[in-house]
Design goal:
The protein has helices at 15-28, 47-57, 72-86, 102-113, 128-136, 156-160, 185-198, 253-263, 272-282, 286-309, 333-344, 370-380, and strands at residues 34-35, 96-99, 119-124, 140-145, 167-172, 201-205, 229-234, 247-251, 313-314, 322-326, 346-347, 349-350, 361-365. The protein is α/β, with parallel strands linked by helices. It has two domains: 6-44 and 287-380, Aspartate Aminotransferase, domain 1; 47-282, 3-Layer(aba) Sandwich (Aspartate Aminotransferase, domain 2). Helix 2 (47-57) runs antiparallel to helix 9, helix 3 runs parallel beside helix 9 (272-282) and helix 4 (102-113) runs parallel beside helix 5.
């Protein structure tokens, strides 16, 4: 028998990949499952975006290989988007690289910067893929704990007491996933200074910047940030285009060029029609965000009501596509969600999949209709 690579022993299949098989089996058996676990937007993209994609498909060049760096007008639209919404000025020629979803950027960035034995600072709780990619490349995940008492912000003082001599990368995700905490520019400034003192490259994964936030923020706005920071962003959540797989990595040209060396050996460009649709999305007015958030505000009110019915507590100032809820004392997250799935046919995510600091918490997605959310409330009352 031909065995898989040894690196496969360092990771497991993604939690949602496994759990959704269980959920789908229950659905196939006729169980009326309401899925509140996955952050996959159920709303539609702007109609003009779909129209632009369809028209792009009919272009004579649409079905050829595309540029590894994306269409020049796509990079220009991304630069305009960052200038208008984040007040960050980027060169579309050298400081922006379109990606097929920001998730692939996690692998590309890691491959561009990590050698075997390098260490990576990873938030706990945080997105599980940061850890998985580090392990696949033979790097060592070093977790920095985020505490509710500190509003889920990194403790820079505690970090500097550690041996950071082998640390190459640090992953951030603000607005934070899964907690919804928003970092201030003061926090970003402290982190940029920390990175400069310790020669660490910070990557801020920023796909939730427009969902129920007080204002979109980018770490790249901090003076001198481009020296030690790059940022990932995505159209998935902002424009309901998760299945299109359109993201971007932004930063100093030397960092973008390093990532391009990896990416250009991994794919042959993004489909032309998708790029044309993405350009239209990035040109949407602020009315789009107001309309989108009005829907999520209504849904969040219902999720808060559901959390109340389950005796959970939560932060009403949190942002993003989820509600991070604290379970009653001494309640185990995975046991709780299994009972909820079995008895009430509701699927929510246990906090433990995001790290040990997620024990005692669950995460509700806002990607469900008001009808489904009202039904979920009825089931637990």
């Amino acid at each position: 028998m031909i065995e898989g690579a040894k690196r496969l022993h360092t990771v497991e299949e993604y939690y949602f990949s496994k759990k959704l098989r269980e959920v789908n089996l229950l659905k196939a058996a006729g169980k009326p499952i309401i899925n509140l676990g996955i952050g996959s937007p159920d709303l539609q993209p702007p109609q003009k975006v779909v129209t632009a994609m369809i028209q792009g498909m009919q272009d004579t060049n649409a079905h050829k290989y595309q540029s590894y760096q994306g269409l020049p007008e796509l990079r220009e639209a991304m630069a305009d988007f960052y200038r208008e919404n984040f007040q960050v000025h980027l060169s579309p020629k050298t400081e922006i690289l379109p990606l097929m979803g920001s998730k692939e950027g996690i692998m590309h960035i890691s491959m561009a910067y990590l050698n075997e034995g390098d260490e990576v600072l990873i938030p706990n709780p945080g997105y599980p893929t940061y850890q998985s990619v580090a392990k696949l490349l033979g790097a060592k995940p070093v977790f920095y704990e985020l505490e509710e008492a500190n509003n889920w912000m990194p403790d820079v003082t505690a970090l500097e007491k550690q041996d950071l001599s082998k640390v190459k990368l640090m992953w951030l995700s603000y607005p934070h996933m899964p907690t919804g905490a928003q970092a201030s520019y003061k926090i970003f400034e402290e982190l940029v200074d920390f990175a400069k003192r310790n020669n660490i490259l910070i990557v801020n994964d920023n796909p939730y910047s427009f969902i129920l936030t007080d204002a979109p923020r980018s770490i790249l706005k901090v003076k001198g940030a481009k020296d030690v920071c790059i940022e990932l962003n995505s159209l998935s959540k902002t424009f309901n285009m998760a299945g299109w797989r359109v993201g971007m990595v932004l930063g100093d040209g030397k960092h973008i060029n390093n990532i391009l060396k990896v990416k250009s050996n991994m794919d042959s460009g993004m489909f032309y029609g998708i790029q044309k649709g993405a350009i239209e999305a990035l040109r949407c007015s602020k009315l789009w965000f107001l309309s989108l958030n009005s829907v999520y505000e209504q849904r969040r009110e219902l999720v808060w009501e559901l959390a109340d019915a389950l005796n959970c507590t939560y932060d009403k100032n949190a942002s993003g596509l989820f509600v991070w809820a604290k379970l009653p004392p001494y309640t185990k997250a995975e046991e709780f969600i299994d009972v909820l799935l079995k008895n009430n046919h509701l699927f929510v995510a246990p906090g433990t999949i995001f790290g040990s600091k997620g024990e005692g918490y669950i995460r509700f997605s806002l990607c469900a209709s008001t009808e489904d959310l009202q039904e979920a409330i009825t089931r637990v009352l």
